[in-house]
Records
---
Amino acid sequence: MNSAVLERVKETPDQPKFIKLPEVVSICCMSKTSIYAAIRQGRFPKPVKLGNRCAVWVKSEIHGWVESCIASSRERTETGD
């Protein structure tokens, strides 16, 4: 599946959308190195392998990770940590 096909797929609750690393980097404001380190540590969603040299992420999982970071940050702020 090429990137043009991936971009045309619209995300719906029953049909997730795949995104490539540059979009993940943009959404998360993290470097590639930091993303892969967080994956190894179990703190970031794992990519879906579509081939030997093609990895994509599920967009809703990335947005869920962002939301959990926000919630965690808010909890720490409210408790004074």
Note: The beta strands are 18-19, 48-51, 54-58.
---
Amino acid sequence: MPLLKFHLYKGRSPEEIGLLLDAAHEAMVLSFGVPTGDRYQVVSEYDEPHRVFRRPFGISCAAVAGSSSMV
């Protein structure tokens, strides 16, 4: 029984989150043969200012200089 964890920014509607979880479960069923009844998913929601991204290993600062999501 796989456990899927989703880390999302706050602000999505329950319907949007439901669609995401449904699509992820369907992909697990089709791709890995997970039984349809084995659905274990955890959603954590965060405020946007709490994000921290590190520069990818091996990429120079010049390669990511224009990206606002890299710190």
Note: Residues 3-64 form a domain with the Macrophage Migration Inhibitory Factor fold (CATH 3.30.429.10).
